[in-house]
Amino acid sequence: LFRSERQIIYALYMLQSVEDADVGLAVLPLLTHQMAEIRRKALLVLWTMPQDVTLDQLDLLLEDADPNVRLAAMSVICQKNPDPVPLLKTYLINTDLKIRSAAVVCIAHQDNPDVGSLIDVELLETLLVFDGDDGGLLRVQMARALGTLNEPAFRPYLLQLMRDPSTVVAGPAIESGGVTRDPEFVPYLIDLLAVSTFRGVALQALVT
């Protein structure tokens, strides 16, 4: 039916505005497609569909090699579950840091205050201690989540992430510092204007 992966991606984009259970069933096989962007787009279509999706169909995608696929899978799980709090609690203590990081970002984007309250100071202190590639990814997701949550009690942890030795972590944290519009970050952001690596992102954060 489709002659190229680009056509599949375009079709999935168009289907995101169609609320039809038959469409949801049709895209389920694409959750195992070899291309990560197709897996992610298929999940975005399922997010808009009225029918339920079983955890068995999504659990494997929480361990996907692509972080955007993992986050999309977590978002579908949260959206389809009328009470996602108990499930998210289990993800936050999962031994796989990739699953924890997806849960953190998903929680930050939920309007439900009961879900948002799952991220607290104790959790942040627990998650900040991990090293390695997965630990770095977790800190990146935390940095983005803290900007979205914009909680004054979390400012010290966001500042810690802004000073992270990894530029991959510090960049998103600086962006989040700008999102909060907290004057507490202004002196540090001004100092970063003298650092070529961060000049652009720091300037953007200051004018946000």
Overview of the molecule:
The chain has 14 helices and no strands. It is mainly alpha-helical and about 210 residues long. The mean pLDDT is about 90.
Q: How big a fraction of the residues is strand?
A: under 5%
- Oligomeric state of the chains in view: single chain
Number of helices: 14
**Element order: H for helix, E for strand:** HHHHHHHHHHHHHH
Unreliable spans are none
Structural class: mainly alpha
Helix content: 55-70%
Shape: globular
Topology:
Blueprint lengths: L4 H11 L5 H7 L8 H13 L6 H5 L7 H14 L4 H8 L4 H12 L4 H4 L4 H7 L4 H18 L5 H8 L4 H14 L5 H7 L6 H9 L1
Summed up, what is this model?
The chain has 208 residues and is mainly α. The chain contains 14 helices and no strands. The protein has helices at 5-15, 21-27, 36-48, 55-59, 67-80, 85-92, 97-108, 113-116, 121-127, 132-149, 155-162, 167-180, 186-192, 199-207.
Question: Any key phrases for this structure?
Answer:
208 residues; 0% strand
